[in-house]
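We were asked to recover a plausible sequence for a given structure. The inputs and outputs are reproduced exactly as logged, with field labels preserved.

PROBLEM: sequence recovery
POSITIONS: 351
GIVEN STRUCTURE:
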């Protein structure tokens, strides 16, 4: 740490360390957020799959255990219009796998709920305001955003291009997360679907730093103290790290996911839209290899998940990750099965 902390996110959010634990829906809850907060970083609670009641419960539990700042993260996609033809074609494509597992392809299964930020969720924030609220896929409608601002929370969102960073700054965000292509999980893009317009972290970060005057948080491929030092050298005000926390005991990463992260053969990742309908980076598995990781004919986000989830359930029951979204970034070298506090402190040594 240096004496210039007030220009970093440590100063902005009142943290000891300029490290944000990336919100990671599906693989963590309040325990990971708490461990990072207690270590002096910004712990994040992913709320994309939480009902208002579950969010209320988790925020109360966190508040009971720590007075440190917490980030609550929401998706803000437009809810999709179901398309029966697209859904039927998707099920037809998956039919051989359904047959392999003896599943009925006509059975309708709702995928894991991923709901955009709403007034019901804003009600919970008004009751128990977190220090920071971050969004993925842009920002919510202005009336909703106003409600978040009214709680006093600092507002963040991810940019995958310079254009998105400028747009977020114009909406008055407090800091911008520069999400490079290396990053695990969903791409946060919202102005354009053109993945070729997106760059790696250390190409994107300095361009965004030059283009905006708000603090920029580097995300994607940062896995150790040297990566943090590199981000700082390129003008970052802090870092957001996801993949490196996936093996921590406080994360809820499932057994097949943990196994894939530690496989002897090493990990190859790719962007895929097969599991949700939006591009996200995960470890390449059978479904991605056999269908092609990116397809133009999958149902819109998040509807694609519905037809895949029974296959995932059957395969995982036999210890196989062939049909699971094994979200991970390109740099898995920081993944260690040690307490999240240790990972947080190790990352911060690079600042
Ligand atoms: C398993 C996993 C789940 C993720 N889920 C979310 C999420 O719910 N919300 C979000 O804003 N970002 C999510 N991300 C993206 C992270 O915010 C961040 O951009 C990324 O983890 C940084 O790259 P790294 O994984 O290489 O550290 C997720 C990332 C991973 C690895």
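RECOVERED SEQUENCE:
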């Amino acid at each position: 740490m240096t004496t210039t902390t007030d220009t970093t996110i440590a100063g902005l959010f009142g943290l000891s360390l300029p490290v944000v634990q990336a919100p990671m829906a599906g693989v963590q809850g309040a325990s990971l957020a708490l461990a990072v907060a207690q270590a002096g970083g910004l712990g994040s609670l992913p709320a994309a799959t939480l009902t208002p009641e579950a969010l209320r419960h988790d925020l109360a539990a966190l508040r009971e255990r720590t007075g440190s700042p917490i980030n609550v993260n929401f998706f803000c996609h437009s809810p999709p219009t179901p398309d029966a033809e697209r859904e039927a074609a998707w099920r037809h494509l998956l039919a051989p796998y359904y047959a392999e597992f003896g599943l009925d392809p006509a059975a309708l299964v709702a995928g894991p709920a991923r709901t955009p930020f709403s007034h019901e969720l804003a009600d919970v924030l008004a009751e128990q305001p977190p220090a920071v609220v971050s969004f993925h896929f842009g920002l919510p409608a202005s009336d909703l955003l106003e409600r978040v601002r009214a709680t006093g929370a600092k507002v963040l969102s991810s940019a995958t291009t310079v254009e998105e960073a400028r747009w977020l700054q114009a909406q008055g965000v407090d800091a911008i997360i520069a999400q490079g292509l290396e990053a695990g999980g969903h791409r946060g893009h919202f102005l354009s679907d053109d993945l070729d317009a997106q760059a790696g972290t250390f190409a994107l970060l300095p361009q965004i730093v030059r283009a905006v005057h708000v603090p920029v948080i580097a995300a994607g491929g940062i896995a150790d103290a040297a990566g943090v030092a590199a981000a700082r050298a390129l003008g970052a005000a802090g870092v957001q790290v996801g993949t490196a926390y996936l093996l921590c005991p406080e994360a809820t990463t499932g057994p097949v996911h943990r196994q894939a992260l530690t496989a002897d053969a090493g990990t190859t990742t790719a962007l895929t839209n097969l599991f949700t309908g939006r591009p996200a980076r995960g470890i390449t598995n059978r479904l991605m290899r056999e269908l092609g990781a990116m397809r133009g004919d999958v149902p819109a986000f998040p509807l694609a998940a519905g037809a895949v989830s029974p296959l995932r359930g059957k395969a995982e029951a036999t210890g196989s990750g062939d049909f699971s979204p094994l979200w991970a970034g390109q740099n898995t070298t920081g993944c260690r099965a040690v307490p999240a506090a240790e990972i947080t402190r190790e990352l911060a040594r690079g600042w």
